[in-house]
Amino acid sequence: QQKVQQSPESLSVPEGGMASLNCTSSDRNFQYFWWYRQHSGEGPKALMSIFSDGDKKEGRFTAHLNKASLHVSLHIRDSQPSDSALYFCAASSNSGTYQRFGTGTKLQVVP
Amino acid sequence: NAGVIQTPRHKVTGKGQEATLWCEPISGHSAVFWYRQTIVQGLEFLTYFRNQAPIDDSGMPKERFSAQMPNQSHSTLKIQSTQPQDSAVYLCASSPTGTEVFFGKGTRLTVV
């Protein structure tokens, strides 16, 4: 069983719309979260990290973390076609260990 | 900064042959990671090094996979007796402190 679970598997939103992605860690030792984005033919690139309860905003991207439930979400407002990609959630136990990744959410932004 | 460099980008091997994948991490980064990506499993952690020392190889299939980091400028992942189920994209990544991880573009391995 995947220890980092993401939903939905795929998501289609209209250009200018809001995309919402979800992620849960089943291991309480892994509670530091990252969001990555991967375009076809490229490696994943970090979008943002969130380590504390609450919201963290970076431009059009907002992450929300609930440490009690180990649930993190990513919201992309004013979605653009260039946001179409595979989005991964990753969790780590502390800043010095490897990150566990989920299976990803494929986002398609339709013009 | 050319980022993490992986070679080759594509490799085709026959079943039973050996495959060696190369990674050049970003200069100055102390941590190097190897991941395997498939559609079904997503990104699976394989192993990582810190300051060239192996730290955790808990994700490595024990019998045919091995990884080395002989110097700070490159790491290799070797797969002996490749099998069709080894077909995947193998991603190398490096990190300055173990926080943000920078990935290469990957090596797509196809075992026929």
Notes on the protein architecture:
The complex is a heterodimer of chains A (111) and B (112). Chain A has no helices and eleven strands. Chain A has 111 residues and is mostly beta strands. In chain A, strands 2, 4, 5, 9, 10 and 11 form a six-stranded mixed beta sheet that branches. Chain A has a five-stranded antiparallel beta sheet with strand order 1-3-8-7-6, with no helix packed on it. In chain A, a hairpin with a 6-residue loop joins β9 (85-92) and β10. The termini of chain B are far apart. Chain B is globular. Chain B is mainly beta and 112 residues long. The A-B interface holds A 2, 34, 41-46, 49, 88, 90, 92, 95-104 and B 4, 31, 33, 35, 40-45, 48, 50, 56, 91, 93, 97-106.
- Pattern of helices and strands of chain B: EEEEEEEEEEE
**Number of E-type strands of chain B:** 11
Shape of chain B: globular
What average pLDDT do the residues of chain A reach? Answer: 93
Shape of chain A: globular
Give the DSSP E fraction of chain B (strand runs of 2 or more residues).
Answer: over 45%
Oligomeric category = heterodimer
Mean pLDDT of chain B: 94
Distance between the termini of chain A: 36 Å
Low-confidence stretches of chain A: none
